[in-house]
Amino acid sequence: MKKITALLCLILLVSNLSAKKVKFAVDMATHSISPNGIHLISNFQSTLGLGSDWDPGTLQMLQQGSTTIYTVIVNLPAFKAYEFKFVNGNQTYEAEFVPEKSRVEDVGFGNDNRWIYLDSLANDTTYMGAIPFAGNAPVGLKLIRYKVTTSNVNPVSSQSIHVGTSYQTPNFNPATIRLHSFGNNLHEIINYVSAGTYTYNFFNGNTAITTETVQSPCANNGKRVVVLNTDSVLTTVCFSGCGSNCPAVIGINEISKNKLNLKLYPIPSNSFLNIETEIENEVEITIYNQFGQLLENKKVENGKLISINTSNFLNGNYFVRVNNLKGNSATTAIIIAH
To answer: Residue 158 burial by CB count (10 A; 0-12/13-18/19+): exposed, middle or buried?
Structure first.
Protein backbone atom coordinates (compact mmCIF):
# COMPACT_ATOMS: atom_id res chain seq x y z
CA MET A 1 0.00 0.00 0.00
CA LYS A 2 2.92 2.29 0.81
CA LYS A 3 4.40 1.80 -2.68
CA ILE A 4 1.03 2.35 -4.36
CA THR A 5 0.63 5.61 -2.49
CA ALA A 6 4.14 6.66 -3.53
CA LEU A 7 3.41 5.94 -7.18
CA LEU A 8 0.19 7.92 -7.00
CA CYS A 9 2.13 10.83 -5.55
CA LEU A 10 4.48 10.70 -8.51
CA ILE A 11 1.66 10.56 -11.02
CA LEU A 12 -0.21 13.43 -9.38
CA LEU A 13 2.86 15.59 -8.88
CA VAL A 14 2.25 18.89 -10.64
CA SER A 15 5.08 20.30 -12.70
CA ASN A 16 5.93 23.94 -12.17
CA LEU A 17 8.04 26.47 -14.03
CA SER A 18 11.21 25.39 -12.23
CA ALA A 19 10.70 21.64 -12.69
CA LYS A 20 12.76 19.37 -14.90
CA LYS A 21 11.95 15.79 -15.89
CA VAL A 22 14.76 13.38 -15.00
CA LYS A 23 15.08 9.70 -15.90
CA PHE A 24 17.22 7.57 -13.59
CA ALA A 25 18.29 4.15 -14.87
CA VAL A 26 20.40 1.33 -13.50
CA ASP A 27 21.73 -1.77 -15.27
CA MET A 28 21.50 -4.85 -13.00
CA ALA A 29 23.11 -7.26 -15.49
CA THR A 30 25.84 -8.36 -13.08
CA HIS A 31 23.65 -8.76 -9.98
CA SER A 32 20.83 -11.02 -8.86
CA ILE A 33 17.65 -9.03 -8.31
CA SER A 34 16.30 -8.78 -4.78
CA PRO A 35 12.71 -10.09 -4.33
CA ASN A 36 12.01 -6.67 -2.77
CA GLY A 37 12.81 -4.92 -6.05
CA ILE A 38 15.20 -2.17 -7.10
CA HIS A 39 14.91 1.26 -5.47
CA LEU A 40 16.39 4.73 -5.77
CA ILE A 41 17.51 6.33 -2.52
CA SER A 42 18.14 10.09 -2.60
CA ASN A 43 18.08 13.52 -0.98
CA PHE A 44 15.06 14.57 -3.07
CA GLN A 45 12.45 12.09 -1.84
CA SER A 46 10.87 14.71 0.44
CA THR A 47 10.73 17.08 -2.55
CA LEU A 48 8.67 14.42 -4.34
CA GLY A 49 6.33 14.05 -1.38
CA LEU A 50 7.66 10.61 -0.47
CA GLY A 51 8.35 11.22 3.19
CA SER A 52 11.88 11.37 4.50
CA ASP A 53 14.96 11.58 2.28
CA TRP A 54 17.19 8.51 2.09
CA ASP A 55 14.33 6.09 2.78
CA PRO A 56 15.35 2.97 0.78
CA GLY A 57 11.85 1.57 0.33
CA THR A 58 9.64 4.32 -1.13
CA LEU A 59 10.94 5.08 -4.64
CA GLN A 60 10.81 1.83 -6.62
CA MET A 61 12.32 1.49 -10.08
CA LEU A 62 10.52 -0.49 -12.78
CA GLN A 63 12.03 -3.12 -15.08
CA GLN A 64 12.08 -2.21 -18.75
CA GLY A 65 10.50 -5.18 -20.51
CA SER A 66 12.65 -8.29 -20.14
CA THR A 67 15.91 -6.29 -19.98
CA THR A 68 18.22 -5.85 -17.00
CA ILE A 69 17.47 -2.11 -16.98
CA TYR A 70 15.35 -0.54 -14.22
CA THR A 71 14.15 3.07 -14.45
CA VAL A 72 12.11 5.76 -12.74
CA ILE A 73 11.16 9.25 -13.99
CA VAL A 74 10.68 12.18 -11.60
CA ASN A 75 10.18 15.95 -11.79
CA LEU A 76 12.77 17.99 -9.90
CA PRO A 77 13.52 21.73 -9.58
CA ALA A 78 16.25 22.72 -12.01
CA PHE A 79 19.58 24.46 -11.37
CA LYS A 80 20.32 22.32 -8.34
CA ALA A 81 22.58 19.37 -7.54
CA TYR A 82 21.04 16.14 -6.23
CA GLU A 83 22.55 13.07 -4.58
CA PHE A 84 21.40 9.49 -4.98
CA LYS A 85 22.25 5.77 -4.99
CA PHE A 86 20.70 2.61 -6.34
CA VAL A 87 19.45 -0.05 -3.90
CA ASN A 88 19.15 -3.76 -4.71
CA GLY A 89 16.32 -4.33 -2.24
CA ASN A 90 14.63 -1.98 0.21
CA GLN A 91 17.17 -1.70 3.02
CA THR A 92 19.93 0.90 3.39
CA TYR A 93 22.62 -1.77 3.71
CA GLU A 94 21.61 -3.07 0.26
CA ALA A 95 22.66 0.19 -1.42
CA GLU A 96 25.43 0.00 -4.00
CA PHE A 97 29.07 0.85 -3.23
CA VAL A 98 29.62 3.86 -5.50
CA PRO A 99 33.08 3.97 -7.16
CA GLU A 100 35.22 6.95 -6.14
CA LYS A 101 35.20 8.54 -9.60
CA SER A 102 31.40 8.89 -9.46
CA ARG A 103 31.11 10.19 -5.91
CA VAL A 104 30.32 13.67 -4.68
CA GLU A 105 33.74 13.52 -3.04
CA ASP A 106 35.92 11.55 -5.42
CA VAL A 107 38.89 11.13 -3.06
CA GLY A 108 38.75 8.90 0.00
CA PHE A 109 35.63 7.87 1.86
CA GLY A 110 33.86 11.19 2.36
CA ASN A 111 30.48 11.68 0.70
CA ASP A 112 30.09 8.47 -1.31
CA ASN A 113 26.80 9.30 -3.07
CA ARG A 114 26.29 9.72 -6.80
CA TRP A 115 25.28 13.18 -7.95
CA ILE A 116 23.65 15.00 -10.83
CA TYR A 117 23.30 18.70 -11.60
CA LEU A 118 20.17 19.83 -13.49
CA ASP A 119 21.37 22.64 -15.68
CA SER A 120 18.35 23.66 -17.72
CA LEU A 121 14.58 23.87 -18.05
CA ALA A 122 14.54 22.55 -21.61
CA ASN A 123 11.36 20.71 -22.53
CA ASP A 124 13.00 17.31 -22.62
CA THR A 125 14.05 14.57 -20.22
CA THR A 126 17.49 14.56 -18.65
CA TYR A 127 18.84 11.04 -19.06
CA MET A 128 22.30 9.90 -18.04
CA GLY A 129 21.95 6.42 -19.49
CA ALA A 130 21.72 3.11 -17.63
CA ILE A 131 24.57 3.11 -15.12
CA PRO A 132 25.73 -0.34 -14.00
CA PHE A 133 24.96 -1.08 -10.36
CA ALA A 134 28.14 -0.10 -8.44
CA GLY A 135 29.73 1.01 -11.75
CA ASN A 136 30.87 4.28 -13.28
CA ALA A 137 29.42 4.60 -16.77
CA PRO A 138 26.79 3.08 -19.06
CA VAL A 139 27.92 0.08 -21.13
CA GLY A 140 30.10 1.18 -24.05
CA LEU A 141 30.82 4.62 -22.55
CA LYS A 142 33.48 6.14 -20.30
CA LEU A 143 33.09 8.56 -17.41
CA ILE A 144 34.86 11.89 -17.80
CA ARG A 145 34.82 14.32 -14.88
CA TYR A 146 35.88 17.90 -15.53
CA LYS A 147 37.28 19.98 -12.65
CA VAL A 148 38.31 23.64 -12.82
CA THR A 149 39.10 26.12 -10.07
CA THR A 150 38.05 29.76 -10.42
CA SER A 151 40.03 31.26 -7.56
CA ASN A 152 41.57 33.67 -10.10
CA VAL A 153 38.24 34.71 -11.68
CA ASN A 154 36.49 37.83 -10.45
CA PRO A 155 33.62 37.80 -10.91
CA VAL A 156 32.41 34.31 -11.78
CA SER A 157 29.48 34.69 -14.18
CA SER A 158 25.96 34.45 -12.77
CA GLN A 159 25.50 31.83 -15.51
CA SER A 160 28.25 29.76 -13.85
CA ILE A 161 31.14 27.94 -15.53
CA HIS A 162 30.49 25.84 -18.65
CA VAL A 163 32.62 23.44 -20.67
CA GLY A 164 32.55 23.23 -24.45
CA THR A 165 33.79 20.02 -26.08
CA SER A 166 34.53 18.51 -29.48
CA TYR A 167 31.95 15.75 -28.87
CA GLN A 168 29.08 18.21 -28.60
CA THR A 169 26.75 19.12 -31.44
CA PRO A 170 27.53 21.84 -32.35
CA ASN A 171 31.14 21.56 -31.23
CA PHE A 172 32.28 23.69 -28.28
CA ASN A 173 28.80 24.86 -27.45
CA PRO A 174 29.31 27.21 -24.46
CA ALA A 175 25.75 26.93 -23.15
CA THR A 176 24.80 23.27 -22.73
CA ILE A 177 27.20 21.71 -20.19
CA ARG A 178 27.06 23.74 -16.99
CA LEU A 179 29.41 22.87 -14.15
CA HIS A 180 28.42 22.79 -10.48
CA SER A 181 30.39 23.98 -7.47
CA PHE A 182 30.24 22.20 -4.12
CA GLY A 183 32.38 25.05 -2.73
CA ASN A 184 35.98 26.36 -2.58
CA ASN A 185 35.82 27.79 -6.13
CA LEU A 186 35.91 24.26 -7.58
CA HIS A 187 33.49 23.61 -10.45
CA GLU A 188 32.90 20.15 -11.90
CA ILE A 189 30.60 17.97 -13.97
CA ILE A 190 30.42 14.32 -15.05
CA ASN A 191 29.77 13.30 -18.67
CA TYR A 192 29.55 9.85 -20.28
CA VAL A 193 31.10 9.52 -23.75
CA SER A 194 32.78 6.97 -26.00
CA ALA A 195 36.51 6.39 -25.72
CA GLY A 196 38.53 8.72 -27.94
CA THR A 197 40.59 11.89 -28.14
CA TYR A 198 38.72 15.12 -27.42
CA THR A 199 39.41 18.82 -27.10
CA TYR A 200 37.62 21.19 -24.76
CA ASN A 201 37.60 24.63 -23.12
CA PHE A 202 35.96 26.21 -20.11
CA PHE A 203 33.74 29.31 -20.28
CA ASN A 204 33.04 31.88 -17.58
CA GLY A 205 29.42 32.13 -18.64
CA ASN A 206 27.45 30.63 -21.51
CA THR A 207 28.60 32.61 -24.56
CA ALA A 208 31.59 32.15 -26.86
CA ILE A 209 33.13 35.45 -25.80
CA THR A 210 33.62 34.14 -22.24
CA THR A 211 36.04 31.36 -23.24
CA GLU A 212 39.26 30.91 -21.31
CA THR A 213 42.62 31.66 -22.91
CA VAL A 214 44.83 28.57 -22.62
CA GLN A 215 48.49 28.70 -23.62
CA SER A 216 51.05 25.99 -24.33
CA PRO A 217 52.14 23.52 -23.01
CA CYS A 218 48.66 22.49 -21.80
CA ALA A 219 46.78 23.38 -24.98
CA ASN A 220 46.78 22.61 -28.68
CA ASN A 221 45.71 25.60 -30.79
CA GLY A 222 44.12 27.10 -27.71
CA LYS A 223 42.14 23.96 -26.80
CA ARG A 224 42.73 21.53 -23.94
CA VAL A 225 43.17 17.88 -25.00
CA VAL A 226 42.22 14.61 -23.32
CA VAL A 227 42.77 11.03 -24.49
CA LEU A 228 39.93 9.05 -22.94
CA ASN A 229 40.62 5.32 -22.70
CA THR A 230 39.12 4.59 -19.30
CA ASP A 231 36.85 6.24 -16.72
CA SER A 232 38.74 9.43 -15.89
CA VAL A 233 38.66 12.24 -13.36
CA LEU A 234 40.66 15.02 -15.00
CA THR A 235 43.26 16.88 -12.98
CA THR A 236 41.96 20.11 -11.50
CA VAL A 237 43.16 23.10 -13.53
CA CYS A 238 42.98 26.82 -13.04
CA PHE A 239 40.64 28.69 -15.39
CA SER A 240 42.88 29.87 -18.27
CA GLY A 241 45.84 28.07 -16.69
CA CYS A 242 47.72 24.78 -16.83
CA GLY A 243 47.97 23.80 -13.16
CA SER A 244 45.73 24.28 -10.14
CA ASN A 245 47.76 27.16 -8.62
CA CYS A 246 46.03 30.25 -9.90
CA PRO A 247 47.75 33.65 -10.26
CA ALA A 248 46.39 36.69 -8.49
CA VAL A 249 43.44 38.32 -10.19
CA ILE A 250 42.65 41.87 -11.12
CA GLY A 251 38.91 42.18 -10.75
CA ILE A 252 36.05 44.64 -10.96
CA ASN A 253 36.19 45.29 -7.22
CA GLU A 254 39.84 46.34 -7.42
CA ILE A 255 39.46 49.18 -9.92
CA SER A 256 41.14 52.19 -8.33
CA LYS A 257 40.16 55.81 -8.37
CA ASN A 258 41.42 57.55 -11.48
CA LYS A 259 44.02 59.84 -9.90
CA LEU A 260 45.89 60.28 -13.18
CA ASN A 261 43.01 61.71 -15.24
CA LEU A 262 43.18 58.62 -17.43
CA LYS A 263 41.38 58.74 -20.78
CA LEU A 264 41.01 55.71 -23.03
CA TYR A 265 39.47 55.59 -26.50
CA PRO A 266 37.89 54.30 -28.64
CA ILE A 267 35.59 52.23 -26.38
CA PRO A 268 34.84 49.55 -27.39
CA SER A 269 38.32 49.21 -28.85
CA ASN A 270 39.02 47.35 -32.05
CA SER A 271 42.56 47.11 -33.45
CA PHE A 272 44.10 49.81 -31.24
CA LEU A 273 43.61 51.60 -27.94
CA ASN A 274 44.68 55.17 -27.20
CA ILE A 275 45.64 56.07 -23.63
CA GLU A 276 45.95 59.69 -22.54
CA THR A 277 47.30 61.00 -19.22
CA GLU A 278 48.60 64.34 -17.92
CA ILE A 279 52.01 62.80 -17.27
CA GLU A 280 54.98 64.05 -19.30
CA ASN A 281 57.47 61.56 -17.92
CA GLU A 282 57.84 57.78 -17.88
CA VAL A 283 54.83 55.56 -17.18
CA GLU A 284 54.29 51.82 -17.09
CA ILE A 285 51.29 50.32 -18.89
CA THR A 286 49.96 46.87 -17.97
CA ILE A 287 46.90 45.16 -19.45
CA TYR A 288 45.15 42.16 -17.89
CA ASN A 289 42.26 40.10 -19.17
CA GLN A 290 39.23 39.45 -16.98
CA PHE A 291 40.88 36.31 -15.61
CA GLY A 292 43.94 38.12 -14.23
CA GLN A 293 46.38 37.12 -16.97
CA LEU A 294 49.01 39.71 -17.86
CA LEU A 295 48.83 40.38 -21.61
CA GLU A 296 50.81 43.58 -22.03
CA ASN A 297 53.55 45.29 -20.04
CA LYS A 298 55.49 48.23 -21.44
CA LYS A 299 57.21 51.37 -20.28
CA VAL A 300 56.71 54.61 -22.18
CA GLU A 301 58.98 57.66 -21.81
CA ASN A 302 56.16 60.17 -22.29
CA GLY A 303 52.75 59.25 -20.93
CA LYS A 304 50.79 62.02 -22.64
CA LEU A 305 49.54 59.72 -25.44
CA ILE A 306 50.14 56.01 -25.82
CA SER A 307 48.74 53.77 -28.55
CA ILE A 308 48.43 50.02 -27.89
CA ASN A 309 47.90 47.45 -30.63
CA THR A 310 44.94 45.29 -29.56
CA SER A 311 44.33 43.48 -32.84
CA ASN A 312 45.51 40.17 -31.36
CA PHE A 313 43.31 40.42 -28.25
CA LEU A 314 40.16 38.32 -28.07
CA ASN A 315 36.81 40.02 -27.67
CA GLY A 316 36.01 40.63 -24.02
CA ASN A 317 36.62 42.73 -20.92
CA TYR A 318 40.11 43.94 -19.96
CA PHE A 319 41.77 46.07 -17.31
CA VAL A 320 44.35 48.75 -18.10
CA ARG A 321 46.65 49.93 -15.29
CA VAL A 322 48.93 52.96 -15.53
CA ASN A 323 51.72 53.61 -12.99
CA ASN A 324 53.92 56.71 -12.85
CA LEU A 325 57.31 57.32 -11.22
CA LYS A 326 55.70 58.73 -8.07
CA GLY A 327 53.89 55.49 -7.38
CA ASN A 328 50.46 56.77 -8.37
CA SER A 329 48.32 54.40 -10.39
CA ALA A 330 44.94 54.11 -12.02
CA THR A 331 43.12 51.03 -13.28
CA THR A 332 40.26 51.24 -15.75
CA ALA A 333 38.05 48.59 -17.37
CA ILE A 334 37.71 48.52 -21.15
CA ILE A 335 35.94 46.40 -23.75
CA ILE A 336 37.52 45.03 -26.93
CA ALA A 337 35.18 44.06 -29.76
CA HIS A 338 36.48 43.32 -33.25
So the answer is: exposed
Single pTM value for the model: 0.73
Q: What is the tens place of the pLDDT at every residue in 283-335?
A: 888 888 766 677 888 888 776 778 888 888 887 778 888 887 766 777 777 77
Residue 4 vs residues 10, 11, 59, 86, 175: alpha-carbon distances, Å? 10, 11, 10, 20, 40
Q: Which of 198, 192, 201, 212 is nearest to 289 (CA)?
A: 212
Nearest CA to 148 among 200, 109, 108? 200
Q: How far is CA 127 from the centre of its chain?
A: 18
- Sign of CA pseudo-dihedral 200, 202, 208, 211: negative
Rounded to whole angstroms, what are the CA distances from 60 to 33, 77, 91, 130, 193? Answer: 13, 20, 12, 16, 28
Helix (H, G, I), strand (E, B) or coil at 257: coil
Sheet holding 283-289, edge to edge: 294-300, 283-289, 316-324, 329-336
The 10s digit of each residue's pLDDT in 29-43 is 999 999 999 999 999
What structural domains does the chain harbor? 1-128 (2.60.40.10), 140-247 (2.60.40.10), 252-336 (2.60.40.3080)
